[in-house]
Amino acid sequence: MRYRFAAALFFSSVLGAQAQVTPERADIPLTAAQDVQFRALLPDLRCLVCQNESLADSQASLALDLKYEVRGLVASGKSDAEIKKYLTDRYGDFVLFKPPFAPRTFLLWFGPALLVLLGVITALAYVRKSRKSAVPTPAVDAEALRKLLDEQE
């Protein structure tokens, strides 16, 4: 019984994420210039669900809603900068594929490099510690070794 519910929930979420543009979503008419602006703007915006796809490529239902919202903003005569500001005010800098360089986006820009640097420092510290803690092998006196072997025979 539980498995049927889980399967139904899974398939409904998968099918819901693949929603298509319905006619009521495409009812905002655009001029030729606005259509060019709309199509040029979508690749710069990130799908909030897929995260690795642009808004132009995504078919997730939330992405379709966001495309519709952007289409309405373009139709109302907003500039690209105004639209991006509106979206970042509402969804944060994550909605942009190229977030602005600012103190609040420091980790977005330098986080990967800091993690690599931290990994290198940790590896170097581990190697140094393992070299210092290695037990040195004592020098073997050849004469004492011969005596020891002769005694055992």
In a few lines, what is going on in this structure?
The protein is mainly α. The protein contains six helices and no strands.
Q: How are the SSEs ordered, and which strands pair?
A:
Layout: H1 2-17, H2 32-41, H3 61-75, H4 80-91, H5 106-133, H6 142-152
H and E order: HHHHHH
The CATH superfamily name of the largest domain is Cytochrome C biogenesis protein
Largest sheet: none
Percent strand equals under 5%
What is the β-strand count? Answer: 0
Task: Give the count of helical stretches.
Answer: 6
What is the class of the largest domain in the CATH system?
Answer: Mainly Alpha
Q: What CATH architecture of the largest domain would you give? A: Orthogonal Bundle
Overall pLDDT score: 78
Round the Cα radius of gyration to an integer and report it. Answer: 31 Å
Helix content: 55-70%
CATH topology of the largest domain: Helicase, Ruva Protein, domain 3
Overall tally of domains: 2
Distance between the termini: 77 Å
Uncertain regions spanning at least 5 consecutive residues:
1-24
Q: Which structural class is indicated by helix and strand composition?
A: mainly alpha
What best-fitting shape do the alpha-carbon axes yield?
Answer: rod-shaped
